[in-house]
Amino acid sequence: MTMPPTPTTPGLGLTDLPVNGGTVLVAGDGGLIGSYAAREYTRLGWTVHGVSRRALDDVPWQHHSVDLLDPESATSGLAGLRDVTHLVFAAYVEKPTDAELIEVNDALLRNTLDALRAAGAPLRHVTLYQGGKAYGHHLGYFTTPAKESDPRLVAPHFYSTQEDLLRQAAAERGFTFTALRPEGVTGYATGNPMNLLLVIGVYAAICKELGLPMRFPGTRAAYDVLYQTTDAELLARATVWAGSADSAAGQVFNVTNGDQFRWSGLWPRFAEHFGMDYAPPQQMSLTEAMPTRADVWRRLVDRHGLVPTPYEKLVAWPVGDFLFHHEADNITSTVKIRQAGFADALDTETRLLQRFDRLVEQKVLPPFHDR
Fold first, then answer.
1. Per the domain annotation, does 179 fall within a domain?
2. In a domain, 16, yes or no
3. Are strands 261-262 and 226-227 parallel, antiparallel or unpaired?
4. What string of DSSP letters covers 276-306?
5. For a Cys-Cys bond, which of 117, 141, 249, 292 suits 176, CB 3.0-4.6 Å?
6. Euclidean distance between CA atoms 298 and 305, whole angstroms
7. Where do runs of H (alpha helix) occur along the chain?
8. How confident is the model at residue 4 (pLDDT cuts 50, 70, 90)?
9. What digits encode the pLDDT tens for the residues 154-186?
10. Which domain holds residue 202?
11. Looking at the DSSP assignment, which residues form a beta bridge with residue 88?
């Protein structure tokens, strides 16, 4: 059996991954997490199917446009997937309240599982994604480093209800599952604005075009807290590992790059990398301010021939506002997943700069230096 090429990203490739291991369905293959998972499974030679409501063009896996919120649509749309052994569940629908989030996202998972059962798929493993909200990141301060053994929040959350649904289905239908908890996933997926990289990159490009310095748009306290991120490529490798490792069965794992940083250490490096002046933080609302600069972005798109994504769909500015105004450390322990056998790690500063350069090469961001 020929092994696939070793990833070129420094720090990746430490954990052996299964090659040609079966057939996987990635629910939410148009999103940031799902697209990287589908790409990694494809690279490893698996048979890969992806499913989401919107059509996807030019992907190297088999995509199916299916509305998973509709049970009948899910059953008919997945009827042909009789060989699926692994499910990667990255589908998600945003709603304004916890009750609505639970209702709609539980339905997505339930309908997908039921459709695969109806198809007669020999499902062996399901990977589910959670995140820092499991520990109360969205509520403010929480105990750090957060561990998977920490108690659940008293308020119901769809992370918990989906996990309970999955545990019950696994026990009844004879498959295993793993829940992964990344934080601040960084990467790029076309048409997905929920992306910290684009928040920073588009903000920087507009500021530079206006002759303004690079300055942190959040609070001084948020500038100095400890934070962490999870590279989308690393998370994809953790996903493949979780689907095959006996030590991952029935477990919940935090998964991050493995280091921590303060924005106060990174922001001056961003300025240097982008060829911009640096200035101290200035608190603002990106959600209010940045939509007023659509004309500046259109000018950059025209000048540099950038990917013509509509400005209002390019960046989810509330993502930046939330992270840049969060005044508590956000650190989770990754000891458990390392002890279980997944050892991949990245230097976040280096990786973020590499990703910005890649976005320039892809003509998602304008060049930051005259060439």
1. yes
2. no
3. antiparallel
4. --B-------HHHHGGGGHHHHHHHHHHHT-
5. 249
6. 10
7. 32-43, 71-77, 98-119, 158-173, 196-209, 220-224, 232-242, 263-274, 286-289, 294-304, 317-324, 335-340, 348-361
8. very low
9. 999 999 999 999 999 999 999 999 999 999 999
10. 186-229+260-330+346-361
11. 26, 127
